[in-house]
Write a structure and sequence with these properties.
Keywords: Hydrolase, Membrane, Transmembrane, Transmembrane helix. This protein is an alpha/beta fold. Helices cover 42% and strands 16% of the residues.
């Protein structure tokens, strides 16, 4: 009996150690994603000059003292300003695919660089709210009060929450976003690693919350999107998105109030709507902002 108890104790100890190691590893994938520009995905990796756009690098300081060096692309006789918010593991260049057409349509653009690129970590939209707040403060301080927002993936989820909380944002496009941060992480764990919810995911959640000083369960754009109405929103999402399942777009659209629209082309790669149909993607984005942000 003592030998059996000893084996059971050893097994339990090893299992706990492995669980802790695994939770640390998977929480690190969320908090510290590798940041790089993928030319196949993001296309424009050399900045706005690659598109022949005039630009400046501007410094945006957050309340927790991070300095977000972002792209400012002014427009002649600008009608309004659009804040573009990149995704998890992305950079400020992510919105450049839409930049030339939006700028030509008369919009100033602020391509925000999120905290993961400046000494911070990613938090699926929790701490990134401070980055958007800092960007909005920067714009308003400089006299830009007519503001739209355009978010990509994690930036989309972040932008939904921000628009709900900031009535000064007048119109928003949310591309390839998710309704719940923990839901998309659970779906990813099952799809990419074959990991069921128990016993690992609750421990990963605990690790994320402790290491990231956050509440990952609270990052739920699905609970915020309805309060944006009557300000207009548009949701873009590939029908066969291989990372954030299309049901997130449908769930968000169902919860959103009017006016709202959904564009869902038959693409299958995450956040590559522009790559799949550049002219249609630009037409959808420019048309939305020309209708609602002028």
């Amino acid at each position: 009996m003592k030998r059996i108890q000893k084996y059971l104790l050893s097994f339990l100890t090893i299992s706990i150690i492995l669980l802790v190691i695994a939770s640390y590893y998977f929480s690190s994938l969320v908090l510290y994603p590798k940041v790089k520009c993928n030319a196949e995905h993001h296309v424009y990796c050399n900045g706005p000059a690659e598109l022949g756009l005039e630009f400046q690098e501007v410094e945006i300081k957050t309340q927790d003292k991070l300095n977000l060096v972002s792209y400012w692309i002014p427009a002649k006789n600008a009608k309004a300003t659009i804040l573009l918010v990149h995704g998890h593991g992305g950079q400020r260049n992510e919105g450049l695919r839409f930049a030339k057409s939006l700028n030509a349509a008369g919009y100033n653009l602020l391509l925000l660089s999120l905290r993961r690129n400046h000494g911070g970590f990613a938090s699926m939209g929790f701490h990134e709210q401070k980055d958007i707040e800092a960007a909005l403060s920067y714009l308003k301080t400089n006299g830009y009060n007519k503001i739209g927002i355009f978010g990509f993936s994690m930036g989309s989820a972040t932008s939904i929450i921000a628009m709900a909380d900031h009535p000064e944002i007048q119109a928003g496009i949310f591309s390839s976003g998710y309704g719940s941060a923990i839901d998309v992480l659970v779906e990813s764990a099952k799809r990419d690693f074959g990991i069921p919810y128990y016993p690992l995911i609750p421990v990963v959640k605990l690790a994320l919350n402790l290491r990231g000083d956050m509440d990952i369960d609270s990052v739920r754009p699905i609970d915020k999107i309805a309060s944006i109405s009557p300000r207009p929103i548009a949701i873009f999402h590939c029908k066969m998105d291989d990372y954030v399942d299309y049901h997130h777009a449908l769930d968000l659209f169902a919860k959103a109030g009017e006016p709202k629209s959904l564009w869902s082309p038959e693409c299958h790669r995450h956040e590559r709507l522009w790559n799949f149909a550049p002219k249609e993607a630009e037409s959808q984005a420019v048309g939305f902002f020309q209708k609602y942000l002028r």
